[in-house]
Amino acid sequence: MSVADSTATPAIEVSHLVKTYAGVAAVNDISFTVGRGEIIGFLGPNGAGKSTTMRILTGYLPATSGQVRLCGVPVASRADEVRRLIGYMPENNPLPEDMRVNEYLYYRGRLKEVPRRKLGPRLDEILELCDLKRVRHRLIGKLSKGYRQRVGIAEAILAEPPVIIMDEPTIGLDPHQILIVRDLIASLRGRMTVIISSHILPEIEVTCDRVLIINGGRAVAQGTPAELRREIFGHSSYRIELAGNTAALPALLAGVEPTLKITGATPVADGFEALTLTTAREDELGEPLLRMLTAQNFRVRALSREHPTLEDVFLAATKRSWDVKDEPAGPKSGGSDEKEKREIRPDRKN
Amino acid sequence: MRHFGTILGHEIRMLLVNPATYIAAVLFLAVMGFIFTGILETYSHTPQELSPGYVFFELFWLPVFFLVPLLTMKCLAEERRLGTLETLLTTPVSTAEVVLGKFFAAYFLYCALWVSTGAYFWLLKSFSGDSRFLDPAAVAGGYVFVAVSGLLFVSLGVFASSLSRNQAVAAIFAFAMLFGLVIGTRYLGTVEALSTITALHPLKSVVDYAQIFQHLDDFRRGVVDTRELLFYFSGTVLALILSILGVETRILHS
């Protein structure tokens, strides 16, 4: 997984970041830390403040208040140094239309201070990695969307910066291309720290080590996808298709595990019913359940454990934060404990 | 300033591959050629006091008003509109390097086009065989004027481009500024109120100093006045500083 070198400074430290545009807080007190070599995903509805946060990270936009450090270098005072540490691909991947791919990458390499001698071989490497060899002499304006995204990604990783920031890298790509880009990003793990923002939740789930969900300018949830599932849903779900005396079921279920409850029942064909069971227990209850059910002469034809997807987590987290109750302002450490960073008191509706 | 060379080379190359540059060049040379031919026709009918070289620069403002906006409208406005300004400013280059690189690329092209009008004088000399028609002093003076005033004009064009996302708005704003500077100051110089109302006398001295046509005459007669040089250099520096600030401020307050 992630190679977080505990002796080195974290790749990205953001503490109490605020950005207001004309009275509207686009980013309202976001704090998080990213260790070296991690891949972290930003999730959030449109207008949540993801792009603004990323722009502040790159030093392009100045923040209204708060502190951002990249590899220990503060962005506000040493923006110049920070720009040598990042590779950035903005939203909509703006590219000059009238340059050729290799020309553009060469120019960007020179701007990022890659020495001339290394630039040639590095370009070959990158073109190979991003599968751009066939189109190296084509005008960027004439490339299809998938190629353009790859040119954008190639340009971001060209100078091998320690931190790569990509705003929606897989938007508009077809499934094949998404797969290519996903593998590309996964191959950077450990060597470079990557921040991706996206709406394509399955991608984030698969590629990212940790996820940060932003809504309305606030960080509403942080953690690995598994942690988030546990935190937001806090239970395991099982789906069973069975036929038999379902009236007696609750008592029998309580026998297997006290917290096991039926939370949903729909009849399916042939007299079977599809039941959703939930329990607070984390470990696998499939075996005892099956044993109990067959002992009691129920006819079981399907049993599976349901994992809430990141989409469910996302919808629950962003819905829930409409009922934000702010914690009273107290001294907060700007450091590494993620759990402290959540500003809302969750209003559990499940 | 380490990346200035890279940016300059890149901008010049981009200007040279852009068809709009060649269209502007053709129009410019066509207009100037037409003017030169007109001058020669007048000369062939009746003898004139001043040499063709002297008179040729009289209408310098005509191509300037159209050429400078065409060369500079794209430089910053297009980048801002496409979003590539963002990718450019997140590399280790500074805003100053970007603006200066674009300015010098446009200026280089401007000078190159004017230098190519030297071909007209060369043609005149080679066909007439008589070097009396060629007034090297006046021609040199004229070209020096073009080079020096070009600094100011192109920097105003870059400034106009830094203020807008839209190329057309940038072009029109540049045109308006150049018009105001060249023709406007000339008109203001003739306004009587400036000389009669004593309260406006400081303004009158400013307007008198900024008479572009007066500068042209001085240069052509061989008088290279450092006050006039200062006018152009300081104006250029001011316009470039404002361009750099313009780019940065729009990000700050976007």
Descriptive keywords:
heterodimer; A: 350 residues; alpha/beta; 6-stranded mixed sheet; 4-stranded antiparallel sheet; 11 helices; elongated; disordered C terminus; B: 254 residues; mainly alpha; 13 helices; 0% strand; globular
Plain-language structure description:
The complex is a heterodimer of chains A (350) and B (254). Chain A has helices spanning 50-58, 79-83, 101-111, 116-129, 145-157, 175-187, 201-207, 225-233, 249-256, 286-295, 310-320, and strands at residues 12-21, 24-34, 39-43, 65-70, 73-74, 86-89, 163-167, 193-197, 210-215, 218-223, 236-243, 261-267, 273-279, 299-306. With 350 residues, chain A is of the alpha/beta class. In chain A, the strands form three sheets. Chain A has a six-stranded mixed beta sheet, with helices on both faces. In chain A, strands 2-1-4-5 form a four-stranded antiparallel beta sheet. Chain A is elongated. The radius of gyration of chain B is 20 Å and the shape is globular. At the A-B interface, α3 of A face α1 and α5 of B.
Fraction of helical residues of chain B: over 70%
Overall structural class of chain A, as computed from helix and strand content, comes to alpha/beta
The global form of chain B is: globular
Order of adjacent strands in the largest pleated sheet of chain A: 6-7-8-3-9-10
Into which percentage range does the β-strand content of chain B fall? under 5%
